[in-house]
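call fold(seq) -> tokens
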Amino acid sequence: MKRKNSLESLLVICFLLVPLVYAGAATKLNDVENNEIDMLNVDNEPPVTFIYVDSLTHMITLVAVDYGNPPSGVKATYYGRDGGDIKIYTEPFKWSEIGFHSFTIFSVDYAGNWETRRTFTFTNDSTPPTVEITSPEEGKLYLNGSPIMSRIIDNKTLCIGKVPVAANADDGTGSGVSMVLFSFSNGDSGYDNDGSNGFTYLFNGMHFGALTITAVAIDNAGLTSTPDSMTVDVYNLGLI
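ret:
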């Protein structure tokens, strides 16, 4: 009788333990699967660092983004100026030394992925460009955009038809001329941001009488020149 009771007790204990053993095995299996998934989603991508230079305030800002999947996060960003020592970036800083400069930047994430070093160059500029209108020429007679002859009776420039406007602009050793803006006293305006053959604009608006032409140069640092102006007589229907 005692053996029978012992056997029944053993069966009861086994019955109660089976779900616990199964639950433990399932949990263990889930942990293994989750670990395998985590291993597949390890961040293997290095961060990418961007540099922003404010040409007016000369403030330099570095921003790093971690593109890992999932990202581990940017741990640190570094920079070097003009080939000098590498420093850790902590906050935006001002770099107002005039002239040509180079910055080496890179970052590392918490997964230990190091970004390849990259170098960016820029020119700090505090001197505005200069501009001078070169066409139309003083005292010339123009016919539909082409100079015909020097005026005999009056030294004032006369343009019959289109007006060919041109200007020379220079920024010395600065950041370089970005564009030249042309404006006219009748409200028209235009610009040239090429400058490979000088800065030009062809005025073809309807106008009869005196017309003031103004040119302003802008450099790559956002600095503007002192305007240069001239007044010509224009008789143009603006039809051709």
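The mean pLDDT is 85.
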